[in-house]
């Protein structure tokens, strides 16, 4: 039997499930999918720190397991969703990879650089995405045009556009806000390797020049971008503060549960103070 496309045969499933707080026996059903998705979002922060530390972002399953499970770090969309894909593959779910164009409220056409998954469970297809960061889903969302669903204090919806494109939206106090547009084309790990190279190296990528660290919970979202830490609630209220270079390791540990080695903390402080 050959290697699986998504690397489930390389994953220490027990270690992953323990990391996300999943108990019981995983099965290829909606109950397991919901629990794994929610547990993953709660356990792993969104973060781009490897890029700022001068290291390549590795997407093979052993590297993802070592970084995110063993060393208890986070990652950005490809890392997060490829680790989830390996777990779903190992459990026995049927799914396909997706590519999406990030909108974040903008009408401009951006390249397809975001990864998500379409997963089959209990006779229906579900959008699963544990790697969108601060505005992302807490749980799977059914692929139904016009769906509206509340997850914690957050409300999400999906609309169909032309040529099979679907748009994931979230409800802001001022109205619906487009997060990203999902294309109909099936994507594969090799596609994400190309996207990852662009996102982790291109000077116009939003992740190469400043820290972006995010965590979504049921009632608030924490977001560190550059030197500004923001905590946002569903009613639009927020608290913000500036994070000085000397505070950064403590903020990462306290707010996002990211514990850096002394060498990494020193490197990140040097990058952080050079104009990020």
Task: Give a written overview of the molecule.
The chain is α+β, with helices and mostly antiparallel strands. The protein is 30% helix and 27% strand. It contains 8 helices and 13 strands. It has helices spanning 13-19, 30-43, 49-52, 61-70, 77-91, 189-201, 248-256, 262-272, and strands at residues 46-47, 94-102, 112-121, 124-128, 141-142, 148-151, 154-160, 166-172, 175-182, 212-216, 221-225, 228-232, 238-242. An 8-stranded antiparallel sheet has the order 5-4-3-2-9-8-7-6. A 5-stranded antiparallel sheet has the order 1-10-11-12-13, with helices on one face. 38% of the residues are buried. Its EC number is 2.3.1.118.
Structural class: alpha+beta
Rg of Cα set:
18 Å
Biggest sheet layout: 8 strands, antiparallel
Helicity range: 25-40%
Separation, N- and C-terminal Cα atoms? 48 Å
Number of DSSP helical runs:
8
Helix and strand element order:
HHEHHHEEEEEEEEHEEEEHH
Model regions low in confidence, pLDDT < 50 over at least 5 residues: none
The amount of beta strand, in percent, is 25-35%
How many β-strands, per DSSP? 13
Output mean pLDDT.
95
Strand order of the largest sheet: 5-4-3-2-9-8-7-6
Family: Belongs to the arylamine N-acetyltransferase family.
EC number: 2.3.1.118
GO molecular function, one term: N-hydroxyarylamine O-acetyltransferase activity
Pfam families: Acetyltransf_2
Topology readout:
Layout: H1 13-19, H2 30-43, E1 46-47, H3 49-52, H4 61-70, H5 77-91, E2 94-102, E3 112-121, E4 124-128, E5 141-142, E6 148-151, E7 154-160, E8 166-172, E9 175-182, H6 189-201, E10 212-216, E11 221-225, E12 228-232, E13 238-242, H7 248-256, H8 262-272
Antiparallel strand pairs: 1-10, 2-3, 2-9, 3-4, 4-5, 6-7, 7-8, 8-9, 10-11, 11-12, 12-13
């Amino acid at each position: 039997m050959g290697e699986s496309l998504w690397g489930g045969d390389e994953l220490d499933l027990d270690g992953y499930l323990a990391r996300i707080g999943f108990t019981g026996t995983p099965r290829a059903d909606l109950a397991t999918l919901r629990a794994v998705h929610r547990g993953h979002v709660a356990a792993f922060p969104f973060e781009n720190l490897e890029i700022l530390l001068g290291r390549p972002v590795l997407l093979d399953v052993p590297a993802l397991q070592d970084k995110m499970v063993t060393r208890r770090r986070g990652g950005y969309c490809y890392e997060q969703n490829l680790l989830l894909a390996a777990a779903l593959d190992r459990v026995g779910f049927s799914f396909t990879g997706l590519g999406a164009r990030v909108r974040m409220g903008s009408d401009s056409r951006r390249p397809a650089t975001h990864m998500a998954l379409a997963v089959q469970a209990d006779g229906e297809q579900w959008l699963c995405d544990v790697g969108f960061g601060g505005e992302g889903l807490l749980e799977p969302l059914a692929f139904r045009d016009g769906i509206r669903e509340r997850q914690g204090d957050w409300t999400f919806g999906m609309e169909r556009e032309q040529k099979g494109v679907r748009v994931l939206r979230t409800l802001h106090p001022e109205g619906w806000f487009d997060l990203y547009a999902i294309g109909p084309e099936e994507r594969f790990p090799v596609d994400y390797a190309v996207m990852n190279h662009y996102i982790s190296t291109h000077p116009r990528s939003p992740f190469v020049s400043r820290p972006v660290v995010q965590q979504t919970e049921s009632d608030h979202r924490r977001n560190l971008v550059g030197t500004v830490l923001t905590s946002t609630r569903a009613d639009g209220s927020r608290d913000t503060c500036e994070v000085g270079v000397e505070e950064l390791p403590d903020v990462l540990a306290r707010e996002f549960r990211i514990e850096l080695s002394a060498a990494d903390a020193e490197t990140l402080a040097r990058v952080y103070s050079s104009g990020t």
